[in-house]
């Protein structure tokens, strides 16, 4: 069987009539009847049931029709993608970001793509990293920024940057004798009343692991909140302190509502990776989006907006 036969078969099933399909296709009805007999001979089973009311697919015919539809879509995708090579990148690209990254990256990246590549439909999905991992592996999103590039199946990943975590407090509630901006030890940071995500969250897991490895003192968490805006609001109101990346709280720091210091002994650093789904097709639009992501991140880091070290 070939793509032409499958396309004709789909027309027969869609119209429910040999004569109607023949008129739509501009071919003789006996030719369609011969085509169906050839297909049935090839697969070794009946594909259509004929009655006075028309023709209807058997179970095997329905299955073949489903495959024919998928093959037709693949052929159309191939045609569009090949024709689009060298043209202006266009189409939908779904991009997953953890909340802390989304806070810093989503707006400048969206604005850059809108100005420079307006034919790309950029769709940002903000979610916890556990969800993003599942979605990028299943192909529900085209790519994502993750803190861990292990256990991702056939997905490809590339290193973006390393960012440090800082300690933050309300502007009128700085708890140390050293001034904001001066490094503080991890053991001192975790002794304060912290507002952090729950234990299932990647950030909390990372901080807990570092505290167990480097400090004998237990970590003090007075409030658990799996919402970045709520954590920021609570800390800004003086209801606790937090440990988070500078990029995630840049807005409140610029407004003078939060003060922070880097953490030492040990320094808390996390690597970020751009992960591309192995299920989603690589298109000119997705390649251009990935390139734009790197350029925007590089600009944010160079200008000191994102406290990080580039790859």
Task: Tell me about this structure.
The structure is a single chain. The chain has 311 residues and is an alpha/beta fold. Helix content is 45%, strand content 23%. The protein is built from eleven helices and 14 strands. The strands form four sheets. It has a six-stranded mixed beta sheet, sandwiched between helices. Strands 8-12-7-11 form a four-stranded mixed beta sheet. The longest helix is centred in the first third of the chain and has 26 residues, at 59-84. The mean pLDDT is 90.
Compose a concise summary of this entry:
The protein has 311 residues and is α/β, with parallel strands linked by helices. 45% of the residues lie in helices and 23% in strands.
Q: Return the string of H and E elements.
A: HHHEEHEHEHEEEEHEHEHEHEEHE
Q: Helicity range of the residues?
A: 40-55%
Shape: elongated
Mean pLDDT, nearest integer? 90
What are the low-pLDDT stretches, counting only 5+ consecutive residues below 50? none
Strand residues, percent = 15-25%
* Structural class assignment: alpha/beta
The tally of helices reads: 11
Rg, alpha carbons: 28 Å
Total E-strand runs: 14
Distance between the termini: 50 Å
Major β-sheet profile: 6 strands, mixed
Major beta sheet, strand line-up? 4-3-5-13-6-14
List descriptors.
23% strand, alpha/beta, 311 residues, single chain
């Amino acid at each position: 069987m070939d793509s032409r036969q499958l396309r004709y078969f789909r027309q027969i099933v869609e119209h429910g009539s040999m004569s109607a399909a023949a008129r739509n296709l501009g071919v003789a009805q006996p030719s369609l009847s011969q085509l169906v007999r050839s297909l049935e001979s090839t697969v070794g089973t009946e594909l259509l049931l004929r009655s006075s009311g028309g023709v209807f697919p058997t179970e095997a015919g329905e299955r073949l029709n489903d495959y024919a539809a998928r093959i037709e879509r693949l052929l159309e995708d191939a045609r569009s993608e090949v024709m689009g090579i060298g043209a202006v990148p266009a189409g939908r690209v779904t991009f997953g970001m953890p909340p802390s990254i989304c806070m810093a990256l989503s707006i400048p990246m969206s604005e850059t793509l809108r100005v420079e590549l307006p034919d790309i439909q950029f769709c940002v999905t903000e979610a916890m990293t556990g969800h993003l991992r599942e979605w990028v592996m299943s192909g529900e999103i085209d790519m994502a920024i993750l803190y861990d590039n292990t256990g991702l199946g056939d997905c490809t990943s590339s290193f973006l940057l390393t960012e440090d975590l800082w300690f933050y407090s309300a502007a009128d509630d700085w708890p140390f004798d050293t001034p904001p901006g001066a490094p503080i030890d991890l053991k001192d940071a975790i002794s304060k009343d912290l507002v952090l995500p729950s234990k299932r969250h990647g950030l909390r897991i990372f901080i807990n692991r570092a505290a167990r490895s480097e400090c004998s003192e237990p970590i003090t968490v007075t409030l658990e909140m799996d919402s970045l805006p709520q954590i920021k609001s609570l800390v800004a109101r003086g209801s606790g302190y937090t440990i988070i990346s500078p990029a995630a709280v840049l807005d409140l720091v610029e407004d003078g509502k939060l003060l922070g210091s880097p953490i030492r002994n040990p320094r808390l650093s996390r690597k970020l990776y751009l992960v591309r789904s192995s299920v989603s097709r690589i298109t000119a639009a997705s390649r251009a989006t990935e390139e734009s992501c790197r350029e925007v991140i590089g600009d944010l880091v160079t200008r000191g907006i994102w406290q990080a070290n580039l790859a």
